[in-house]
Write a structure and sequence with these properties.
By secondary structure, the protein is an alpha/beta fold. The protein contains ten helices and nine strands. The two termini are 36 Å apart.
Length: 317
């Protein structure tokens, strides 16, 4: 594939290192994520660390598009695959998405993960979790898995600022995140870090600082999400009381482009926005036009004559 003149990790008009580019380069074709629900809970839902979950989290535990937990993993996989195959054809990554997917005994994790990996044409596994829910025993098993398949462990950080983490009821600190991150990193496991832009009380400068701090960790990949206000959540009640504003499209595009500029060029950008169920989404409603958002980001990077990593420095404080 021909590279763009502006950016090394691209074969089209993108000026950042997309997941699609990385997976096509690695596997030689289209790779599709199949979202699964292992029936997990979370330590700030079940009372271990808190109750109610993160204030933005839906009743599906941020797994709104995952499979039906009543079904077995093979049944979920087939059901979701059929839906995805109406849009794309390719091979698959099994994605444990809803709630905290390392928050169970190792025997249970092994049963679920191995069942997913056994499905036809599965080339990898993605596991969404919290950095404070990875025991040494589980980390050792994940290291074993990473030798057998393309494994990515997704850590829901959302913000590096503990005062914001407290507002959203995250129930673990940035120091806790760094401890869990190091546990995975020293075992050579691919890590994807989640950040949410637009959290109540977080300024544009603070969001940029999140990206600077994460960039210095040199993660395998990053997901940059827009805050969605979902019906039935604590945050929806706070928003409806007028406790915080939502980002405009222009503000969000500017924040994302600033973040891309300070992230390492080799770090894969799995997302630059997110999906919310249309029937449950209170706002921002402009986020429903996902391709418009992505196109505006592309246009702003061109307008700036910029690209991912142009302002990255491992020494940036």
């Amino acid at each position: 594939m021909k590279k763009t003149a502006e950016f090394e990790f691209s074969s089209d008009n993108k000026r950042y290192h997309t997941q699609n580019y990385y997976l096509r380069e690695r596997f030689g074709g289209k790779i599709i994520k199949i979202s699964l629900n292992g029936g997990f809970t979370c330590p700030n839902i079940d009372g271990t660390k808190g109750v109610g979950g993160c204030t933005y989290c839906s009743s599906e535990g941020s797994g709104d598009f995952a499979g039906n937990p009543i079904l077995s993993i093979p049944q979920q996989f087939c059901e979701v695959r059929e839906k995805m195959n109406t849009k794309w054809q390719g091979r698959y990554i099994a994605y444990f998405q809803a709630n905290t997917n390392t928050y169970a005994p190792l025997s249970r994790l092994r049963e679920l993960y191995e069942s997913a990996l056994a499905q036809e044409d599965v080339v990898g596994l993605a596991i969404a979790t919290r950095a404070d829910c990875i025991s040494d025993e589980v980390a050792d098993y994940l290291a074993e898995l990473s030798q057998r398949t393309y494994l990515t462990v997704e850590l829901g950080l959302q913000t590096t600022h503990d005062e914001i983490g407290e507002k959203i009821n995250r129930c673990h600190s940035y120091a806790d995140f760094l401890s869990g991150y190091e546990k995975l990193q020293k075992r050579g496991i691919n890590i994807c870090v989640h950040l949410i832009n637009g959290l109540p009380g977080e300024t544009a400068d603070m969001m940029l600082e999140n990206a600077v701090r994460v960039g210095k960790l040199r993660p395998h990949s990053v997901k940059l999400h827009l805050l969605h206000i979902i019906r039935g959540t604590v945050m929806a009640e706070q928003y409806e009381r007028g406790e915080f504003p939502l980002l405009t499209l222009t503000e969000y595009v500017d924040i994302i482009c600033n973040q891309l500029e300070v992230l390492p060029p080799e770090t894969i950008i799995q997302r630059v926005t997110g999906d919310g169920k249309k029937e449950d989404l209170i706002g921002p409603l402009w986020s429903l036009k996902k391709f418009v958002v992505m196109n505006e980001i592309d246009k702003e990077m061109v307008r700036r004559d910029s690209y991912q990593g142009i302002r990255f420095s491992s020494d940036t404080q």
